[in-house]
Amino acid sequence: MALPVGTKIGIGVVLAAALGYLVLSDTGEGVLEYMYVDQLMGDVQKYEHRTLKVHGLVVAKSIERKKGTTGDLRFVVEYNGQRLPVHYTNIPPDTFQEEGEVVLTGKLVDGVFESDEMSAKCPSKYEEEAGKAAMSELGKGG
Amino acid sequence: MSISTFGTVSMLVLFLLSVATVALAVVGAARKSERMIEGAVQGIHGILGVAVLGSMLLEYAFLAGETSIQYVHHNSHPAMPVLYKITAFWGSLDGSLLFWVLLLSLFSSLAVRANRTRHRVLIPHAVAILATILAFFAALLVFMKNPFEPWLLPDQAPVQPKGLNPLLQNPYMVCHPPSLYLGMVSLAVPYAFGMAALITGQVDEAWQRSVRRWTLFAWLFLGVGLVLGGLWAYEELGWGGYWAWDPVENAGLLPWLTCTAFLHSIMVQERRGMLKVWNLVLVIISFFLTIFGTFLTRSGVVQSVHAFGEDPALAWTFGGFMVVILVGSFGLLFWRRKLLRSRHELESVISREFAFLLNNWMFLICALFVAGATMYPTFTQWSGYLAENYEWYRETMFSLGIYDEAAWLNAALEGRPPPWGRVTIGPAFFNHYMTPLGVALLFLTGVGPLVAWRKTSTESLVDQFKFPLVAGVVAVLIAAFGIPLVRTEGGFEVLSGWGLTCFGLCGFVFWTIVQEFYRGVAVRRRNRPQSVVDALIGLVVRARRRYGGYIVHLGIVLMFFGWAGNSYKLERKLGIYPGEVITLGDYEIEYMGAAATQDWQKDMITVELSVRRDGGHAGDLRPAKWWYYQLPDQPTTEVSRLMRPGGDVYASIADVDMTTGWTRLNLYYNPLVNWVWVGFALLLGGGLVCIGAKREEAEGGG
Q: Quick check: is B685 in a domain?
């Protein structure tokens, strides 16, 4: 004896309702626009004052660690020739370093990216870059 | 012959032997030639031999500091402790693929040996499948990622080797990746036997008997790997949490979810001959997800904090392999669908079968959701790529209103990249969907074992559930009113709905398990007078699968108890001077001062915090910042925490100004967090009890 059709429909309705509720109550929190520095700088007016994620490389020697006064961190990230000054107000991840790749979460306010969340490339070393760099250097030498 | 050449040749032999084994197994099975099949079986053992040889060569290269090999040069440092030199073997892409092959050949060899007489019909096909997977990975090692690749010119090798990042020089990191690998790789065995069953048409329960333990083994190691990764993040990274839904974490979680579903649904097939197709689907998906996970983490297709670098060639290779797996496996399943009819049908909604079916749906929905959300940003990227390059696609997206035509036009006129709207999916999104799903699964954990097979009478329902329900209600009341977990300055913390639900269900499920043990012990003592402890041990030993399962459930309850505490988490980030006092929940934390010290490998700045509770001294915290001489630009954050059953006071520092003593401090109060680890230890114990169970017991248990 299989389940009656009514029961099957009932189960379906309950599951669909639960799923529907979940989707409807989703505030969209956690879903953020993601872009590289050049895209952000290409349309500053559009993206200003919106919370988003920006991906770029930390410009060499741009990191100012202000000890004592504010503890905030200022540095510049770049991508594809475009630069963006950053004001960062949290503990930077251990992998944060000059010329490193970072993804920052925050808002562009008056030309400065105000951020308190950063992920820097994790030290798991499945790296390709070093190998590629070595190969291209070899190409030049030969 | 140099190690590099010797190693490269061994990789080539590995590949050729795998291909030969596939050929022998396939032809042997078709011609029913015992000699050829035996040859294929020997081939599997031979592959293991070559893989062991190759791995030993690579280990030797690391220990001997053979920096003429690129891989060794990149991942080793003369000053590194021997333990880390050994583990550097699988620390990076090329070596991790060799490690994968080593484990897979070991498991294949063991599985084939264990089943060679018992399930002889399945053997040639299982061997063919396993050797095909081995050949795929060996091909990667030969053609794309040879770990023995030397520098092309002798003087090209940079003088200073790089060595392993200090962040990864941590005992958790020694165990975390191999544990995940063990879990992932061992899932190839159930898959191979499942496919062999489909090919031969022997789709009765025989194939499952040969894979139940493998799946349990995989499930345990995946769990260990995930928890160790969480512990590492919690103790090393300083952001106060242990799980952030990063794609690489998700890659390990996905097969764990489907394995959990499989371990439940095979019981239904054993008992009732139902869910046959479902079980095969789960085995296929679990194996697929291990390859998918490898693809996610190695190919660079998803953005992750774990930098694996982009590698389009590898991405396409894995992509192709994944398509072959899906098409081949589901094609076989469709071909054999008539053999997979159920012996029975579902009779009632209030039955064990239905509870298990629901549990399976939930786990599969969880897995699909996590996989979808993980891949979503990549999908938007692919879609953007298509729109940039193909007119018809772009037009379709404009007409569907998914892309804004005007914005694209503007961007094109101004020479900006097309605004196809790449997004990221953060933890908040995952939590929104996974919290209710997790809570529903917790509920089923309690209900499943208490309802009977086929159908359950009303009297039995009342009898089974009255005390657990009372326990659940009491747990909610305690959590809501009795013992406030956290007091803030403004009075009581706002109660979280999910937190309370979770506490209530923990109470409910806890009591269902206690009740099962209590009843079992009572029956044993009635039959033969004995002490409670003797009865308890006797109970577990006699029905290991059943009571091992209950112990696993108990562990799950404790883990959920810990997660529920997370909804009462407190967080404070601030800059302070010595002598200042901060309040964090029930705790008062005074900043005593900072000290600069050094040892042979690093400079250290340590901040001393004194923690008080209810006027008494509760302990000291010493978060620090370390600068390794090896990597002076990358200071490491050293977390300090005060562990209590009620929760952790957790501190990390960003900056310290040694002239004034000013420091920027991150403080967290993580209520009940340690119960997650305790619960997992219990789960592990329960899993080990199950894994030791004899097959025959299946009929009596459950």
A: yes
Helices (H), chain A: 5-24, 37-42, 44-47, 129-141
- Indicate which of B144, B625, B664, B667 best probes the interface with A, i.e. most A CBs within 10 Å of its own CB: B664
CA atoms of B691 and B213, how far apart (whole Å): 6
Judge contact between B554 and B678, C-beta under 8 A.
no
pLDDT (0 to 100) of residue A127: 40
Residue B56 belongs to domain spanning: 1-164
Q: Report the C-alpha gap between B108 and B186 in whole angstroms.
A: 9
Would the CB atoms of A33 and B419 count as touching at under 8 Å? Answer: no
Please check whether residue B359 lies inside any domain of the structure.
Answer: no
Looking at the structure, tell me whether residues B10 and B143 fall in a common domain: yes
Of B74, B168, B427, the CB nearest to A123: B168
Which one of B176, B360, B574, B655 would you mutate to disrupt binding with A, by most A Cβ within 10 Å of its Cβ?
A: B655
Residue with tokens 């880390």: B84
DSSP-based three-state secondary structure for B285: helix
* Global pTM value: 0.88
CATH number, position A90: 2.40.50.140
Tens digits of residue pLDDT in A9-65:
888 888 888 888 888 887 777 788 888 888 888 878 888 888 888 888 898 888 886
pLDDT at B514: 94
Mutate to test the interface with B, among A27, A125, A127, A136 (most CBs of B within 10 A): A125
Of A39, A91, A101, the CB nearest to B637: A91
Domain extent, residue A72, equals 33-120
Domain stop point among B115, B140, B164: B164
Q: Which residues contact B185 (CB under 8 A, 6 or more apart)?
A: B100, B103, B104, B107, B290
Q: Are residues B508 and B593 in the same domain?
A: no
Give yes or no: residues B470 and B490 share one domain.
yes
Q: How distant is the Cα of A136 from the closest Cα of chain B, in angstroms?
A: 12
Chain A residue numbers touching B96 (CB-CB < 8 A): 126
- Tens of pLDDT, residue by residue over A60-81, are 888 886 654 445 788 999 988 8
B442/B548 same-domain check: yes
A residues 87-126 closer than 8 Å to B (CB):
90-98, 101, 103, 119-126
Check if A139 contacts B (Cβ < 8 Å). Answer: no
pLDDT tens digit sequence for B150-159: 877 655 555 5
Give the separation between CA A102 and CA A58, rounded to whole angstroms.
7
Q: Which residues of A touch B430 (CB under 8 A)?
A: 30
Q: Give the total number of structural domains in chain A.
A: 1
The predicted pLDDT at position B157 comes to: 56
With beta carbons under 8 A apart, name residues in chain A contacting B428.
29-30
**How does pLDDT run across B62-104, given as a tens digit for each residue?**
998 887 888 888 777 777 788 888 888 887 788 889 999 999 9
pLDDT of the residue at B35:
93
Do B346 and A22 make contact, defined as CB atoms within 8 angstroms?
Answer: no
Bridge-based pairing of strands B570-576 and B663-671 is antiparallel
Q: How confident is the model at residue B581 (pLDDT cuts 50, 70, 90)?
A: very high
Q: Do A1 and B345 touch (CB under 8 A)?
A: yes
Is there a domain that residue B208 lies in? no
Range from A56-70, B278-292, B404-418, B451-465 that averages highest in pLDDT: B278-292
Question: Domain count of chain B?
Answer: 3
Please state the rounded mean pLDDT for residues B514-536.
91
- Residues with Cβ within 8 Å of residue B420, at least 6 apart in sequence: B380, B383, B384, B387, B388, B403
Q: Is residue A92 part of a domain?
A: yes
Contact by Cβ (8 Å): B621, B649: yes
Q: Which two tokens stand for residue B486?
A: 């956290």
Same domain membership, residue B552 and residue B433: yes
Whether residue B556 is contained in a domain is answered as yes
Contacts of B650 in chain A (CB under 8 A): none
pLDDT score recorded for residue B161: 58
* A141 within a domain of the structure (yes/no): no
Closest chain A CA to residue B297: A126
Last residue of a domain, one of B164, B192, B210: B164
